[in-house]
Design a protein that fits this description.
heterodimer, A: alpha/beta, Rossmann fold, 2 domains, five-stranded parallel sheet, two-stranded antiparallel ribbon, 8% strand, globular, disordered N terminus, B: 342 residues, five-stranded mixed sheet, 14 strands
Chain lengths: 371, 342
Amino acid sequence: MTTLGTRPHDAPGAVALLPGPEPRTLLDAPHGTAPLDPALLLRLHRWLVRGRRYNQQATALTKQGRLAVYPSTTGQEACQIGAALALEDRDWLFPTYRDTLAVLARGVDPVEVLTLLRGDWHSGYDPLAHRTAPLCTPLATQLPHAVGLARAARLKGDDVVTLAMVGDGATSEGDFHEALNFAAVWKAPVVFLVQNNGYAISVPLAKQTAAPSLAHKAVGYGMPGLLVDGNDVAAVHQTVREAADRARAGHGPTLVEALTYRIDAHTNADDATRYRDDGEVAAWRRRDPLARMERHLRERGLLDDAEAERAAAEAEAMAAALRAALAVDPRPDPTDLFDHVYRRPTAQLRAQRALLERESAAGPDTGETNR
Amino acid sequence: MSPASTATTGARETTLAKALNLALHDALAADDRVHLLGEDIGTLGGVFRVTDGLAAAFGDDRVTDTPLAEAGILGTAVGMAMYGLRPVVEMQFDAFAYPAFEQLAGHVAKMRNRTRGALPMPLTVRVPYGGGIGGVEHHSDASEAYYAHTPGLHVVTPATPADAYGLLRAAIASDDPVVFLEPKRLYWAKDLLDPARPVPPIGTAAVRRPGTSATLVTYGPSVPVCLAAAEAARAEGWDLEVVDLRSLVPFDDETVCASVRRTGRAVVVHEAQGFAGFGAEVAARVTERCFHHLHAPVLRVTGLDIPYPPPLLEQHHLPDPDRILDAVARLQWDTDPAGEAL
């Protein structure tokens, strides 16, 4: 005990901060010991199927030039779905650019999820309607937003938890440190979920940190750090749910590290064979989150062929609708470029807007100069 | 010192720092969405005492001493603004604000645009800036060009207690993010302040001194320097007009160009280094719009293109009346028939 003040983990009844030595799993646990509600498991399964199909379809559309870029989460669907579905509607999600399935699971329209990656605007969905922040590209910079929003809600007396998602590489960013520290000091109701997929584009975790695990980093902030099997959708869901409950009860933030693997390359523009070998990928394919879930459900008699086909058909319908919607060329309005920079455009922006309108009216091939 | 309330009316002599304190007090009292965040702004009242007494009056939840991390302060303020609050962030010194620049340029300035207006950023970032107080390294930067170059931000800087009060109230009330640059060396400058006076709209310049010979375009800490230069110029037979921009963004082309068209000559004056500085933008805008009214090229008097000097050398860096008068003397008076009348 320091004379300078009481540290949070000295308080009576405080939870252990150190993560356990092994990641938490539920699907592989003996049946009956895990708190796995069949209806919830089937819902998670349907979303995994939908998420897998969404990744495949978006990747294919990128190859066809319908999307500028798509960072796939194939292999990470359990993290995306398990975590996002652990939130209540009134809670907020703070995703990175890779967390498209988590955003989808918040109820955002499948086409609007892709606006950033299609390139017709920077964000396509209403963040307030879905309590989902825009996909964030600069790494870890959205984490302090999640802390600030959680604190604001708490100051207003609202029962709102925020889920802030981040990758393993981004834990090296200063904003990761600052966000966790602010959250712990303020006891803000935040769940930080690190999807540790082993690589920051090409750089392996060993070049990112010397910590025993990323979950260990929680100790320095005075919050619990939990390690979970990120390819076990039930374990991710249950762990995030428990951390959210803890935050909701006023006990502050939690750091959850989910161990997973990005089966696809970083994006369609990346060549993963330059930095990892096929054997490693094959080993992770054997731990495929969807296959594991199906095996668990079938072993328990919760999933039959008919239910599996229903889930697949529903996912196929979503993919077909996505293909159809993205087959239409978007026609973004260039005057939109000026309308949201400020509440009211400045005189300078009004002048530039008028210039652009004159250029557009003249057309691209007239040779007329407008300047 | 306990802050006065808006109930107090009438003009009183007040320092610029006290005017800012009053503005924050009145904004906190008027709108419970207003929250102050910063380092040492609570119990201490800020290193410049601008938040003196506010934590005691409004509590730690409204006036919060944060952990010492500028990106974290501004980043959490973004989240608070997303939830409908109106955070007012204090950066302790200009050069300590750089860690927050990613949040400012990447999110504060872009969030409204990114979300097509769904998530406006009604937050204010107060930055004490500029030199002339004998500060050691990292305590005297003039960083306005970085902010003014970032679309989505408003950039405001007062030079009088009355403008400090009015512009800060306007900044906090604005639905757009405002970088509020406070000239450190004017914190203790006194002038009359009437809090009941109408708030000057952001985006309007003020003619501080009318004149006919040439226009000095300036802002913030350089306004009193230009006024002193204008007084000294009378002995040379020049009647100089001084325009205080007050808002760098939005820029008041109208007031500036009306003045230059009247006088036919212009010198832009600021503390910051000149290369790619804000004065270059002013000179270009004036030249583009007033070319046929100009009798001489628009000149700039700025800080040197060097890292901010140590305190014992800063007088060589900062524009002073002599340097301004030297520039005025170079405005090609002998080629202008109208000038001969002077």
